[in-house]
Amino acid sequence: MGLSPTPTEQLVAAPAPIPTEQDVVSAARRPRSRIYPWVVAALAFALLLSDYMSRQVLSAVFPMLKADWALSDSRLASLTSVVALMVGLLTFPLSLLADRWGRVRSLVIMAVVWSIATLGCAIASNYEQMLAARFFVGVGEAAYGSVGIAVVLSVFAPRLHSSLSGAFMAGGSFGSVVGVSLGGVIAVNLGWRWSFTAMAVLGLILAALFRAVVTESRLAKYAVHDEPVAPSDGPTASAPVIRVRVSTLFTNPAVWCAYLAGGFQMFTAAVLLSWTPSFFNRYYDMATDKAAGAAALIVLMVGTGMVVCGIVTDRVSRNDPARKWMTGVVFCAISLVALSIGFRMGTGAPQLILIGIGAFFSGGCSGPTAAMVAGLTHESVRSSALGTLTVANNVLGLALGPFVIGILADRLGLLESLQLAPLFYIAAIVALLVGRRVYPAGLRKLASQSTASA
């Protein structure tokens, strides 16, 4: 699902366009409002909510689409997975394009595209048209996570980056909560088409507001740079900028372990985001709106867990960054056990409690993996590294999870398929343990890359 909480290592990529030394000096001399950066953060967060509301509203109307169009579970799953697949495929190239073309302009275009595509979902008359519309929802949402957080972090001091990153990523889950719950209520009272229409209109309004308030020039004025240039009366010699090749994102085994762990741990979290409304509808005999409301609570647990687990990870690893690997292992193990037992129990309060515990820790590994990616890559390519992590999260988790469970549900049944989903945590745990073992070598490789590029 997008980016993950990160430690205090700096995550900011060079803003587009890259300011000159004179721009930095002038910006340093000008007084800065304390409000504007928070306005930027609030608007970017609101668009993130819209992003995931448009993405996850589909889950709320699964039962209605299944009945109206006689769709199989695998076809329903494909409508979800195609969005995550496009996010996985396009995040990296579109993030690079946004850095060169302008982040604000790119974000506005992204929001307009996914909102219009969501409106296309509202007027779709069959599965094929809905699939095409969902394809363009994915195109619009592809790089919002990496570009949006880069914009937010660019106007805040590094000491706030960890908290902001955690909140930004959890916003995906909170947006899913609103999308699923509100979409279910609207669908029951007005019809499922109005659920998509409401999300589309909200996205277009927020895109217009973001464009009116946030501009590249204002971001440059409030930008907080890694090493601010001190004002002086005479000419200032700029420090040499160290840049490493993009290929370094893929030559460090420890970074690869973080990519894989992040992707695999998102598999089950994505399944919970997509299939819990149908689970409550089929096995607890809940109506569409009540099933969506119950599922929203599960999704809320996922998002809350991401924030809390990120904070816990930062505290535990304050004096030893290598502990981040082991906190990820613990979070994955708890979710593996709780969900495996929970989905094998009969319906009732004990089952719901275990599923809630499993959901809380289901995305908890997101913080440790993103922290490792940030700490093991050079800052000149760090935003691209986080974009690569987003690709892994979407391809291995958000796209693969709902689709695989949908196919298995057609053959085994939904409950039996949900019982198998937590097993993917085993792959995440293995990747984390291997990453912990090669972590010292990864740090040495990072140091050698910086020295070679100096």
Descriptive notes:
With 454 residues, this protein is an all-alpha fold. Helix 2 runs parallel beside helix 5, helix 2 runs antiparallel to helix 7 and helix 16 packs across helix 17. The N terminus is likely disordered.
- The secondary-structure class comes to mainly alpha
* Beta-strand content bin: under 5%
Q: Would you count the extended β strands for me?
A: 0
How many DSSP H or I helices? 18
Note the gap between the termini.
35 Å
What's the arrangement of secondary structure elements?
Elements: H1 21-29, H2 36-60, H3 62-69, H4 73-101, H5 103-123, H6 127-141, H7 144-153, H8 161-190, H9 192-213, H10 216-222, H11 253-283, H12 288-316, H13 323-342, H14 349-362, H15 366-375, H16 382-412, H17 414-420, H18 424-453
Helix pairs in contact: 2-5, 2-7, 2-8, 2-9, 2-11, 4-5, 4-6, 4-16, 5-6, 5-7, 5-9, 7-8, 7-16, 8-9, 8-12, 11-12, 11-15, 11-16, 11-18, 12-13, 12-14, 13-14, 13-15, 13-18, 16-17
Question: Brief description of this entry?
Answer:
This protein has 454 residues and is mostly helical. 77% of the residues lie in helices and 0% in strands.
Primary descriptors:
single chain, 454 residues, mainly alpha, 18 helices, 77% helix
